[in-house]
Amino acid sequence: MKRWLAFLFATLLLSVATFGAVAQDDDETTVALAESDELGPYLTDAEGMTLYLFTNDTEAGVSNCYDDCAGAWPPLTAEEPLTLPEGVEGELTLIERTDGSTQVAYNGIPLYYWQGDQAAGDTTGQGVGDVWFVVAPGQELGVMATPMASPAASSEASPAAGTTVMVGSTADLGDFLTDSAGQTLYLFTNDTDAGVSVCVEDCVNNWPFYSAEEPLTLPDGVEGELTLIERSDGETQVAYNDIPLYYFQGDATPGETNGQEVGGRWFVVAPGTLHGDTQAIEE
Is this prediction's pTM over 0.70? Predict the structure, then answer.
């Protein structure tokens, strides 16, 4: 009996040691693999957080995502040696960014996280702006699968049924403005001058401005005025009571409000909100 117990104890110790070795190897793998029915296999970091590519990165080993863009899409960083899972072909390298930091690239493709992913297995960055996509094993720079369009990807929307702005509602937020398709619209508290947008360049990648053609119409019972304002890039943008209106790229479907309070600067727009009220929203 004692011999049997001793054997069992030794077996358990061996099993624990073996499991520990496997876990340690996983921890040492810079990039891992995940899979979904919709997307197939794709790259993640060692913790299972999804990694993305940016189609605007057209030159091997060169990132074009900085400032506000990098705030929303943080680059993957790691220390050498860089390792891939067994069976995954390709090469991981460290590339130098213009700010002096380094970033991991796969086959010359810079790798990024998405701020909208909260847990391992989340892939909410897929298709954002039609320029952000998960990275398949074996992916090559410039070779893309068929893009998956996001409803919030376009900076323009064609008003449905003649109504430019509609009203959505949630239990937490109450009533708020949406476009004609139900996509949530936001204000930016940094827009301190009436009818003037300061969200340009990288900011617009994550917060596309809402544009529509005249005549601009509100639903019955909603007070206020819609206007078209001219942006510094020459484009036009819809404003409500002189408040420039935006989408959030993290909203994949109508009714989502993932942009609410992002950075303490972005908020849904309640019917009746005046431009002067936007500063009070932050408080």
Answer: no
Tell whether the model's pLDDT for residue 195 goes beyond 80: yes
Q: Do the Cβ atoms of 178 and 186 come closer than 8 Å?
A: no
- Distance CA(43)–CA(234), nearest Å, equals 39
pLDDT tens profile 220-269: 889 999 999 999 988 999 999 999 999 998 887 788 899 999 989 999 99
155 CB-contact burial (10 Å; exposed 0-12 / middle 13-18 / buried 19+) = middle
Q: Distance (Å, rounded) from C-alpha 39 to C-alpha 82? A: 25
Count Cα neighbours of 239 within 13 Å in the Cβ-side half-sphere: 20
Q: At 7, is the secondary structure helix, strand, or coil?
A: helix
Half-sphere exposure of 263 (CA within 13 A, CB side): 16
Instruction: Look up residue 127 and give its two tokens.
Output: 């298709």
Residue 143 has, within 13 A of its CA and on its CB side, a CA count of: 8
The answer to whether residues 178 and 184 touch, using CB atoms and an 8 Å cutoff, is: yes
Distances (CA, A) of 71 to 96, 208, 215, 276: 18, 16, 36, 28
Whether the per-residue pLDDT at 158 is higher than 50: the answer is no
Q: Is the pLDDT of residue 150 over 50?
A: no
Q: How do the domains of the chain map onto residue ranges?
A: 31-134, 165-281
| Segment 87-122, tens digit of pLDDT | 899 999 999 999 999 999 999 999 999 988 889 999
Query: What pairs with residue 174 in β-bridges?
Result: 170
Please choose, from the candidates 53, 58, 69, 62, the residue with its C-alpha nearest in 3D space to the C-alpha of residue 201. 69
